[in-house]
């Protein structure tokens, strides 16, 4: 029992030693502070200070300075030394160096002995310091961004703050001129500040004060911002801290923020001011008022905040809807004023980010056990020498052996001399642990980082940015990646929505082939970089519509543009350049022109009315706001969602221009009404939610003879199809075909429909809707039920197809990475439909994939049950089903919901082969489900097993912390190499958690880049970074390290065999000079040459055949097996070198016949020269590309050792006393020497040469085959060679089909007439299925997606206004005729040209 306990204790000790993190000593995990009370313009109470008048620690808040670097001036030396001494070899050589400070063991000067270690430590420290200086410079750009704060007047801020840290860069560089910093009191007063900004107000209280003392706004640095400061954020400004909103420039104090840097969602979120503070709208009023904010303690929950404001005796609640979080960007809002609640490390985005880790490459981690093996061998050799020497001395001392004369002292006797021999043996055999290995690796990795930096293929010309290695020690990890975790927004996509195609009345319009030509396209609406003063454009669509100004019915006050001031024309040009591509389709344009002039009796009239209705729905069914650019005179569409902006823009592109809203009145100009503007009264908004998957508006057309009511609806195809009239079946079938085509092309689809509502029916429904909206119980459920009543018997108009524009080359890159065997997981804050749509467009989800959806927080099965049912249903052969995992339900209800088909009212859209599609499975799991899946080890294990059986995984609606937890789950659970890539602050924790973190720069700020190991400009650069540079670096470094170990075994082996004939005395057989320069001169060049210039294959081959990357993934180039193989080679060669030469010279160590004593230098020098030749040529054999540099590196050491031997043996004792003087004459005239050189050389290298020749000739692997083809057919096209699939590693995945192009318009290979003949059963076989494990529903995925804020502040206020209006009019009879029955046909619906309306009117009279 004790033995078992001892083993357990030993394992625990080793596990703790391996898991030790240096950063834990220097960056203690900071616990969140207690709940806080912020005193705004008030003195802090007496209980906040101690008896000395100093603030108590719990009431001192962290500064707003955020540092992502590792070192400071104080911690640099101890932390860096601790990091370097994690290497066992460094500890060993430190001990050896200390040993040589004792005279008894000194072989050379102690200073010279420790010099190599000092050089290694210094060079590595300089490299680490340089890397960290770059991090500090990036931090400085962030922390030195500016923000406007309140200053002057009676304003004061007494909340205590911690001082800022003195950073590494500040200690090394001279401070530059910067913005003024606040004074010690916390208020930002500066009478001489020339940057002060005064609000345009007058006040008797402030007019008498000097200009500098009036309340005003001044700019300070982000890092100088304090808790309790009042700030003014301008449009497009990033938010510097977590801020409570006091007032905004917009109606009803609403503000819009872009949160994709936090949660990855592309739609804008609405926020509003605290009602009790909304009257504080300028600096003077803010400086004159005081109040308190009571906040909960800082936490990591991105979706929850609890606080309240106590002002004038009233307490107002504060939640997340009233706050602006750090990392977001203010959009579509002129300004917002607020109070800083949390700064720096207490902000939610920083709490969700980890500290900067000290990463070590996998190769380096694997080296420690190998160095440990060498140390064990060294210890064993030293122990053997010590025991043998001690036994021999004990035996021969009584015989008065002459070499033991005087060995009877306390420190020199047979019994103690064994220990001395043991210490001497450590010095003799120390070369088995290569001290130059680490500095060589650092040098090689530095050069590899330079190779990456200067690679023109991964240089982004648009921003003139190279790929930058921020952590030079991870280059070989790039060649071993097994899992990639990617963000979506800004990483895979540009966050730019483009309307590409549509289906109207069963006819598809696919856009012109040259739609993108001749226009410079916005890269995406990105938030301003947090370190830059440059402001990006708001989420707006610019439409040049001065013609609208001629219409008095437009609600937008327009005037012709003024003559542009000097330089304004440049602004106009810049805005035009930023305009997104316009939707153009020649066929559609002809059809619309024809519809304007069409006769109501013609055969084309029905389709003309459908066209009118389709684009009217696009132009009116939304929540978009409008404004007019004062310079360009263009209407700007400001939308919360880029989807809505793209839809409204598309309608405007074809002539259906939304001109704005005036309260509840919407204005629209159409091709048939121009130049007049039609007016519609907005009666109800049935808003979009993730459960409804649709949005509807109820409108009344104003003016004219017919003021009927219309319901306009857009939403998911399966939701809309269930609500269509039975007469729409044929059109639905045709639209389904187009929807599937759009989805297979990776486009996001939306289906449009409408309904004409009878006035009496609407009044009855409106009463029910009002009752539901004011209900105190189950309000949302009642509203949904009443809304669903109205959204029935719809008429189908068509469908839209929007492209969420991807970064260049993303689909091909992902397809090739999948071919390389790398699993790709996407972690995004976007909703489920958006994540699936991006998965399809990026090739992560193939056309024939099956999608397994696991959701949490809703009705149906628990998360655990969903995972179990997924395995039972789709992976029964795994044996991981319910039978193997019995577990009690965690819910009181345990419904057994069977998988079922969704019926659209016509036929099932699920084919008979659901779940059996050939494309494999993709798991989609949301953040609520992950919350439960990661709560215990059993759930983690089950999730991991389910995920690994799927081809890909998409995690949606996840927080930044959950991203890191998912990476950690895979990294620790599977023990695989992981890479995380992102571009926003929400990706920092994920990047830090992965083995390799990659930041994409230039899109969402610098947080991701600052925390990354590699900075690239485009996702597509990841392909070459991994497949070429990563593969090369891993193969080079692995081969170099193995050869380092090998080449040191050769001389150590020779020294060991010599001990048999030297009484185990630990003496050297060579002259010590050969051992001294073994690693630094004789054999260093070949291993460095391999590390820098070897190529397993040319770059174009590795790019064309990604499957070859599997050699890196499975650790071909480095591991214990290879290590022992190289060690055995070295041992064998040492046997050949020593014993062959020994017996060749036998019985004398010299060929001289005169009996002259040369101390064995002749035959030992022969051994030294041969050992150098064998080691260098053997190392050269390990190279696969013998270019000029490798050839030079292999032979330069051999040449030097020959020249050195000649010159060194020429030195007379007058210059230097050596044992080798005259050896050149004896050695080079000896037949023994010239016999031993070739014989030993060839016998030593024969086994490896024969083995390689056999493998290449009879058992070639894929690399050998590729090299052979490349040599004899340099222009061979590997990418399109059909014979490549027959190679072992090149079995291409069926789901790696490249994405189809949809930019070709009519030139597309897709034939519309052929598509109409397709039947759904055949379509189901190739279409992707979706299985929602929470409900058991199975459906065909047709690419539906629509992003908008659900139940946001702006929507709630709009609904409140409509509710108040309904309440005030409930008992008033509408002043409209109700005698007209609504004929539900499009002939009476939307606007047609005036002539046609007259015809319709006359025809009605005739009836």
UniProtKB/TrEMBL annotation:
Localization terms from the record: Membrane
UniProt keyword Magnesium, yes or no: yes
Keyword Signal found: no
Keywords linked to the UniProt accession: ATP-binding, Magnesium, Membrane, Metal-binding, Nucleotide-binding, Phosphoprotein, Translocase, Transmembrane, Transmembrane helix
One GO term (biological process): phospholipid translocation
Pfam family of the protein (one): PhoLip_ATPase_C
Positions of region (Disordered): 164-213, 555-580, 1359-1385
Active-site residues annotated for this sequence: 487
Domain P-type ATPase C-terminal: 1009-1260
GO MF annotations in UniProt: ATP binding; ATP hydrolysis activity; ATPase-coupled intramembrane lipid transporter activity; magnesium ion binding
Main enzyme class: translocase
All residue ranges annotated as the P-type ATPase N-terminal domain in the record: 58-113
UniProt cross-references to SUPFAM superfamilies, sorted A to Z: Calcium ATPase, transduction domain A, Calcium ATPase, transmembrane domain M, HAD-like, Metal cation-transporting ATPase, ATP-binding domain N
Annotated residues for binding of Mg(2+): 487, 489, 983, 987
Residues noted as binding ATP in the record, renumbered to the chain: 487-489, 644, 688, 714, 748, 828-830, 957, 963, 986-987
Biased segments, Acidic residues type: 190-207
Cellular component terms per the entry's GO annotation: plasma membrane
Cofactor requirements of the protein: Mg(2+)
Catalytic activity from the UniProt record: a 1,2-diacyl-sn-glycero-3-phosphoethanolamine(out) + ATP + H2O = a 1,2-diacyl-sn-glycero-3-phosphoethanolamine(in) + ADP + phosphate + H(+); ATP + H2O + phospholipidSide 1 = ADP + phosphate + phospholipidSide 2
Membrane topology: Multi-pass membrane protein
Similarity comment: family membership: Belongs to the cation transport ATPase (P-type) (TC 3.A.3) family. Type IV subfamily.
Record's protein name: Phospholipid-transporting ATPase
Organism name: Tricholomella constricta
